[in-house]
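User: quick one, sequence for these tokens?
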């Protein structure tokens, strides 16, 4: 059932920043093998947004490592912690979500997580299971386990306090709630990003207080976005979503800076160290092609990865059109004298949500029709028999009259 200690450690430690404590992990692995009892590896996710990108997929893949090693993957859906909002890495209080929004996000989360974990073999728990049963006296008892001084040791809290940025009292509750989850599922290991280390250690403290052997805390790196500046985030539009079209995933990968390629290879692919070293010895552009294929393959399959790489070459290297261009039919009443306002065309085609967004795309030089770049948002376009609209580098549509 289980691999040897050294082999398990090599898999578990890949791409990991810190293990607290490694000697405890080794002891638990020995015990697990001897008693043929799987460890309980826990990961908590708050469904505060509907989508998962390759950055917040990193700890999910680490949970999959434990699952593939024969251990129990315990996935906590934080439908109650999400109401509070994780204060990690933020410089202001997060807006609170309604429970309805959280449940809606949860449905898409589970669909996407199924690209990574074997859902049928995953223990999925919602922390509303225990938090909704709590009385106010239970909350007070939990809060008594943490001092304000200890809470202010948390880096993001201390920075906000020094900068006179308000900290709401409910934010102090968050790490206690995350730690309480560890008590309820009796986790042996908890996985989280480096920004989660405080909450992971609180889990150890709370378990110890309940005479439960404290969990091992295992942290994974945070991944910069494709702009190379800040942590990957959908709000910053620097993300690669695991749910996105394979062409979009591949195209975004080609925009990654050369200095970030090794980190992306190590954290966002299943390639071995030897394969990564070999890829990085070549030309950076060729290395990015290998990287793009590896990321697409991880969430789709080998054939899809090969096809998107070939199409990328065809479109950008050979300056040819994609094989399959979606067709957009325009209502005849939108075209006066066989002409249409370019801004209206972008909105009707689904390339822009608003007129303002369409104007920005045009002004930035990102819109062309039959390879003719349009830069004047006021222009009207003459309808043609074969009309290819291109927005940005990767989005195409064949425009026809309905």
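Assistant:
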């Amino acid at each position: 059932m289980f691999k040897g200690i050294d082999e398990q450690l090599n898999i578990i430690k890949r791409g990991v920043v810190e293990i607290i404590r490694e000697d405890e992990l080794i002891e638990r692995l020995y015990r697990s093998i001897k008693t043929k009892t799987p460890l309980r590896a826990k990961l908590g996710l708050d469904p505060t947004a509907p989508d998962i990108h390759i950055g917040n997929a990193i700890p999910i893949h680490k949970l999959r490592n434990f699952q593939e090693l024969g251990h129990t993957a315990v996935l906590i859906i934080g439908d109650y912690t999400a109401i509070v909002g994780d204060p990690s890495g933020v410089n202001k209080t997060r807006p609170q979500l309604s429970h309805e929004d959280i449940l809606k996000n949860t449905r898409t989360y589970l669909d996407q997580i199924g690209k990574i974990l074997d859902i049928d073999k995953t223990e999925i728990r919602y922390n509303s299971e225990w938090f909704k049963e709590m009385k106010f006296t239970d909350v007070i008892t939990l809060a008594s386990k943490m001092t304000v001084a200890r809470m202010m040791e948390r880096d993001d809290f201390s920075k906000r306090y020094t900068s006179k940025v308000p900290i709401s009292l409910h934010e102090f509750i968050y790490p206690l709630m995350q730690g309480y989850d560890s008590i309820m599922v009796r986790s042996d290991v908890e996985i989280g990003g480096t920004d989660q280390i405080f909450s992971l250690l609180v889990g150890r403290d709370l378990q110890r207080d309940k005479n439960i052997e404290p969990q091992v805390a295992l942290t994974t790196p945070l991944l910069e976005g494709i702009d190379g500046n800040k942590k990957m985030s959908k709000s910053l539009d620097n993300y690669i979503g695991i749910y996105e079209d394979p062409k979009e995933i591949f195209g975004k990968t080609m925009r990654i800076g050369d200095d970030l390629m090794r980190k992306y290879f190590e954290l966002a692919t299943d390639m071995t160290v030897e394969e990564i070293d070999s890829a990085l010895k070549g030309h950076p552009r060729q290395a990015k092609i290998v990287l793009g294929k590896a990321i697409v393959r991880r969430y789709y399959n080998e054939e899809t990865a090969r096809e998107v790489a070939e199409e990328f070459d065809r479109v950008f290297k050979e300056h040819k059109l994609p094989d399959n261009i979606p067709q957009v039919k325009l209502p005849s009443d939108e075209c006066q004298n066989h002409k249409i306002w370019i801004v209206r065309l972008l909105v009707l085609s689904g390339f822009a949500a608003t007129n303002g967004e369409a104007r920005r795309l045009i002004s930035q030089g990102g819109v062309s029709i039959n390879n003719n770049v349009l830069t004047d948002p006021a222009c009207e376009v003459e309808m043609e028999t074969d009309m290819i609209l291109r927005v940005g580098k990767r989005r195409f549509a064949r425009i026809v009259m309905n």
